[in-house]
Amino acid sequence: YKGDWEETKARQIAWWRREEVDRPMLVLSAPRRHPLPYTPAPEPTDDRQRRLDFDAVLARAEATFAQRVYLAESFPYVTADLGPGSAGTFLGAEPFFHPDTVWYRPRFADLQEAAIRLEEDNPWWQWTLQATRKAMARAEGRYLVAIPDLIENLDTLAALVGTRALLFGLKDCPQEVHRLQRELLPVWDEIFERLYRIVSPRWDGNAFMAFTIWGPGKTAKLQCDFSAMLSPEMFAEFVIPYMAEQASHLDYVLYHLDGPGAIAHLDLLCAMEGLDAIQWVPGAGKPDGSDPCWDFIYRKVLDAGKGIMAGMTVAEVPRFVRRFGRRGVYIVVSDVQTEEEGHELIRSVTARPQASDIKR
Q1: pLDDT surpasses 60 at 360
Q2: CA atoms within 13 A on the CB side of 107
Q3: Which residue intervals of 204-265 are DSSP H helices?
Q4: At what angle do helices 54-67 and 123-139 cross, to 10 degrees?
């Protein structure tokens, strides 16, 4: 399903390293002009089975892959998806499934009674391991198997104890929040390592779901959406030290910066060691990622020596490239309608060689 995977790998590596390139990273997919053979897969009517019947998940994914073309740095992948916060379910939060997302019921009534332990017989952990192995066996190199969206630090603690309890705990018993953060770090590392050992031998590293990133080593997206409710001082105390420790155990790290409330922490993130790139998501009801009102975010991140990731429509790509260039720039394009339109967009943002660059 992805004939130019070796070139995609090379460009992903160049983006992580912020090397000079002839065009920005682009993620764009479109209906395939000539679909490959596939078996139609019925859509489930039950929200729970939509995720948990993994044989059906794989069949639907393969039908989709056969009907779409993955241009530039886009690539087809599957993952054992329990929603945006798998790690919380492995630690006792109970998922409940909706058509387009998953929510979680907390396990603990308060912080004092909470404890972070990975129990091997946890059904969600076992389902994730088995589904990931099944996907690897079935994919046979035709598409990638990505590590699911684990989520970490305060976002995971909020899933385990509830957002309100965690907010009060930051003021009333900060030592308990620090204790739980310290307990969570090695458990998260173990979860990631176990999944990485399943997927990495085939792919010389790993892909991470939802963000179309791959790296030739341990590659992950980190986040703290909870940070929209924190001051920079609290972010510096309760997030940065633990996230920096986490990043030190990874090779390639993208930070998911979500919504205007999180912008207050941008300076701390730009200064953080081990963070390679930042993805900006404006949030519901805000101008999209290419709007000039967000230019200051991208400029600050690039000036700090990190890469950027932004989402936009085809029409907005040229201005963005003129403004920020190609090095360290990763653009996710949302509305490519045809293969031809996709190829034309790639050509339009690819630098033409200068006469001095041409060997005579």
Answers
A1: no
A2: 19
A3: 232-238, 240-247
A4: 40
E strand segments, 32-163: 68-72, 77-78, 94-97, 102-105, 144-145
Judge whether residue 286 has pLDDT over 80.
yes
User: Rounded distance, CA 154 to CA 176, Å?
Assistant: 12
Q: Nearest CA to 251 among 129, 327, 147, 144?
A: 147
Listed residue (337, 328, 284, 285) closest to 310, CA to CA:
328
Angle between helices 174-203 and 240-247 (to 10 degrees): 20
Question: Which tokens sit at 259?
Answer: 């919504």
71: tokens are: 């241009």
Classify 226 as helix, strand or coil: helix
Residue 50 CA from chain centroid, whole number: 21
Name the pTM for this structure: 0.95
pLDDT single digits (tens) 93-114: 999 999 989 999 999 999 999 9
How would you classify the pairing of strands 329-333 and 25-31? parallel
| Residues 172-221 pLDDT 10s | 999 999 999 999 999 999 999 999 999 999 999 999 999 999 999 999 99
Across 144-162, b (16+ Cβ under 10 Å) vs e yields: bbbbbbbbbbbbbbbbbbb
CA–CA dist 348, 156 (Å, integer): 42
From residue 326, alpha-carbon distances to 185, 269, 318 in Å are: 35, 22, 11
What sign for the dihedral angle of Cα 227, 128, 334, 46? Answer: negative
User: What's the distance, CA 79 to chain centroid?
Assistant: 12
8 A C-beta contact, residue 31 and residue 338: yes
Residue in this structure with the two tokens 């992948």, named with its chain if needed = 77
Q: Cα torsion at 125, 129, 134, 135 (round to 10°)? A: 90
Segment 301-340, tens digit of pLDDT: 999 999 999 999 999 999 999 999 999 999 999 999 999 9
Region 219-229 average pLDDT: 98
Contact yes or no for 338/68 (Cβ under 8 A): no
Taking 90 as the threshold, does the pLDDT of residue 357 lie above it? no
